Amino acid sequence: MKHLILGSSGQIGGHLVKYLKDKGETVYEFDIVRDPYEDLRIEDNLLLEKYITKCDIVHFLAFDVGGAKYLEKHQDTFQFILNNMGIMYNTFKVIWQHNKPVIFASSQMAEMGYSTYGVLKSLGEKVAKGINGLVVKFWNVYGYESDPEKSHVITDFIKMAKHEGVIKMRTDGNESRQFLYADDACEALLHLSKNYSKLPKDKNYCITSFEWTTINEIANFLDVVSSCEVIRGTSKDNTQQNAMNEPDSFIKKFWQPKTDLKEGIMKLYEMY
């Protein structure tokens, strides 16, 4: 099967490229980090059209996004909104013109109307379903990250614990998240790709661990592992406002996460 991964250098995309290649799949990569011509904000991008024409399925993972610190800084800016509107318009237009199967990567934040990022993802969901695409919702996928500006909480904590000996938390840590190891997310995407034609497109496929964990629990575990100091902040979670919207469990009929959170953190800890 020939997979086109839009956002192939991103948090999930980079892991998906390796995972699919290891499984013997054909992979086409597309990301502005690789090549300035692989910029989805470019209208009528002939390179994008070329790859969409030759692939069997499109993984729409590209978005201007990062962890909580990135969203707090950028999500209400004109450029952030314009970037993501342009990415969606240009990409969906070509997918629709060529009638290609597409898996659109959304987020649990699509249900958070107070978040600009969430509103944009919600709009993307509607467009994807409008062209009979498949929507997946990710809950805090973690894995190796190379861009410090866009990194997420587990990566940030591991780097601080290993290299600074102290975890400096941005919040009081009482907010809860569902975390999923990147390889488990990739396994789910491959399964959805292989069974795309048989799957109902009106469902939201929630790719998550289905288990809640506080940020404090992550810090405490790394404290035990590395004997680091933990300095908690005083602010509350402003990005997700500790919204604990429960995921739809439909996907569990044919896919379940395999990696325990502590096991996944230790795998990532060794990588850094």
- Could you say how many structural domains there are in total? 1
CATH superfamily: NAD(P)-binding Rossmann-like Domain
- The CATH level-2 architecture is identified as 3-Layer(aba) Sandwich
Intertermini distance? 33 Å
- Percentage of β-strand residues: 15-25%
Q: What is the CA-based Rg, rounded? A: 18 Å
* Assembly level: single chain
Question: Kindly state the mean pLDDT as a whole number?
Answer: 94
Give the low-confidence spans.
none
What count of helical segments does DSSP give?
9
Number of strands: 12
What's the CATH class, please?
Alpha Beta
Biggest sheet overview: 6 strands, parallel
In terms of structural class, how would the helical and strand content be classed? alpha/beta
Describe, in plain words, how this protein is organized in 3D.
With 272 residues, this protein is of the alpha/beta class. It has a single domain, classed as Rossmann fold, CATH 3.40.50.720. The chain is 40% helix and 16% strand. It is built from nine helices and twelve strands. It has a six-stranded parallel β-sheet, with helices on both faces. Helix 5 links the parallel strand 4 (102-107) and strand 5 (134-138). Helix 1 (13-22) packs across helix 7 (182-194). The longest helix has 21 residues, at 78-98. The chain starts with a strand and ends with a helix.
